[in-house]
Amino acid sequence: MQAAHRVAKNTGILYVRMAITVFISLYSTRLILAALGVSDFGLFNVVGGVIAMLGFLNSSMAAATQRFMSFAQGAGDLEKVKRIFNMSTLLHAVIALLMVLVLEIAGYFFLNGILNIAAERVEVAKIIFHFMVASTFFTVLSVPYEAVITSHENMLLYAILGIVEAILKLGIALYITYSAYDHLVAYGFLMAALSIFLLVLRRIYCHRYYAECVLQFRRYYDKPLLKEIRNFAGWSLLGAASSMIAGYGQAIVLNIFFGTKINAAQGIAGQISGQLGVFALTLSKALNPLIDKSEGSGDRNKMIKATLTGSKISFFLLSFLYIPFLIEMPKLLNLWLVNVPEFAILFCRLLLVRNLIEQFYIPLNSAITAVGNIKSYQKYNAFLNLLPIVVAYILFSLEFPPFSIYIIFIAFSLVQFINVLHHSKINFNLSYSLFFNQIVLKCGSAFILSLLIGAMPLLFLEDTIIRLFIVISLGTLAYLILIWKVGLSIDEQKMVISLKDLIVTKIRNV
Predict the structure, then answer these.
(1) Rounded CA gap, 451 and 349, in Å?
(2) 8 Å CB contact between 253 and 30
(3) Is residue 463 one of the residues assigned to a domain?
(4) Is residue 452 part of a domain?
(5) What's the average pLDDT block by block, 10 residues per block, for the chain (510 residues)?
(6) What are the two backbone dihedrals, phi and then psi, of residue 215, each rounded to the nearest 5 degrees?
(7) What is the DSSP-derived secondary structure letter of residue 341?
(8) How far apart are CA 104 and CA 243, in angstroms?
(9) Whole-angstrom distance, CA of residue 346 vs CA of residue 405
(10) Burial group, residue 309, by CB count within 10 angstroms (0-12, 13-18, 19+)
(11) 308 inside domain
């Protein structure tokens, strides 16, 4: 129960962060789209959008390093944690240099004939790309520090940095709205500078407050450990990089066949998906160290229980906001944006469906990583991440519509689901029947029933703000009831009641 309380506390801190940052971020996007225009907004998403993809890559690589640190902390070995930090820092310095080299070579070809960019904006696109490469270098160097913060479960720092980032992004949006400089160049430079600034803050904090953050490569050099981290990080990097390439590959393929205006629609879909996904990501951020430390201390049963509970709760948290968005997407986008790009509504809905499927198995990835046998899993994972891009290119060559790419990725997400379940069975003997009965069936039935109930007002009410309010209220109420009655087991209900009582007691004592 103590571990559950710690997870609940960390999750609560992150939800406060989310409550502040989500609305600021959505308003910032509205300002940026209005300031840049549809074409330049799409151009930034196809060229500078790699910065956003690298944020995912950074998180994935940090999770791999954090696994080693949490594992050693679970075993109570501080000296090993110091060796892990030093070897991880050395390894990521090499990776950072290699990535800069690869990106610069790839950028030369992409920006000189492959991407569909208006001739007068090619030079601007090149400038933005170089900003992105500089940001990449510092992002990769910061991975060990991100891992240290997560392994110590310091979600307060994570929350503070997130709020600072959201406020500074709003400042950037306001600046470019009234700036006399080229809005796109100014936006690209300031976004890259912001990412570097935040990474420097993390490094300063870690060296000041965490004992393991001491860079003494000679003293803590450990060749066998370096090889182990290299192999593990290498396979993790394969999976993370393939996912990043797949995400960025969507933008490239859409750009080649349909131009930057379609990239604007894709950028809006990504914004909606990213902001709504903060709910589930928040729980994962708080839960992953518990999974790793449980496995590190030899408590496999506790690790599996935390993983299954995380799968269920993270799905509920993700899908909670999806109900009104799936039902009233046109209304919500028109309220949010001045001009809604073509295909944005359909792209958003399809992307949310894909996210729901993936949310079932994302916590299982953490469990597989905690066990450590990831070579076979990451091979299949990389293949399944990249193949949809090839299929989409072929279909677009046959004149299929733009939204086909999202349907393709939904289909491959189902195949990826099977891959994750198979390797979960191999690595920690996951019961298929238990997972489907306790997770998929309960979560899926509660969500679908709530979606149907929430959509009922569309049958007899006009498209107004009042209908939107009714849809949100009805869908939310129905989902809360169904989660409690259908989604949660008796033990989980008792845990929720216990956590509620604990929170109420602490509030009264303040």
Answers:
(1) 13
(2) no
(3) no
(4) no
(5) 54 65 73 73 64 58 70 70 84 83 79 70 79 80 81 76 84 80 78 82 87 81 80 75 78 83 81 70 66 73 82 81 88 80 87 89 82 82 89 92 91 92 89 88 91 90 89 90 84 70 59
(6) -90, 95
(7) P
(8) 20
(9) 12
(10) buried
(11) yes
Residue pair 318/353 in contact (Cβ under 8 Å)? The answer is no
Which bin fits 343, alpha (ψ -120 to 50), beta or left (φ > 0)?
Answer: left
With CA atoms as reference, report the closest residue to 467 among 330, 344, 349.
Answer: 330
Instruction: Please give the Cα distance from 407 to 350 (Å, whole number).
Output: 7
Instruction: Supply the angle between the helices 50-74 and 278-296 in degrees, to the nearest 10.
Output: 30
Specify the 3-state DSSP secondary structure of 121: helix
Q: Which of 37, 54, 36 is nearest to 129 (CA)?
A: 54
d(CA 10, CA 25): 22
DSSP string, 127-181: HHHHHHHHHHHHHHHTHHHHHHHHHTT-HHHHHHHHHHHHHHHHHHHHHHHH-SS
Residue 410, φ and ψ in degrees, nearest 5: -65, -45
Note the Cα 121 to chain centre separation in Å: 30
Report the distance separating Cα 189 and Cα 123, nearest Å.
14
Pairwise CA distance, residues 142 & 6, whole Å: 26
Query: pTM here?
Result: 0.71
* Residue 443: inside a domain: no
Domain assignment of residue 18, given as a range: 2-430
Confirm if 358 and 420 have CB atoms less than 8 A apart: no
Amino acid occupying residue 431: S
What's phi and psi for 51, nearest 5 deg?
A: -60, -45
Rounded to whole angstroms, the Cα distance separating 211 from 83 reads 12
Domain count along the chain: 1
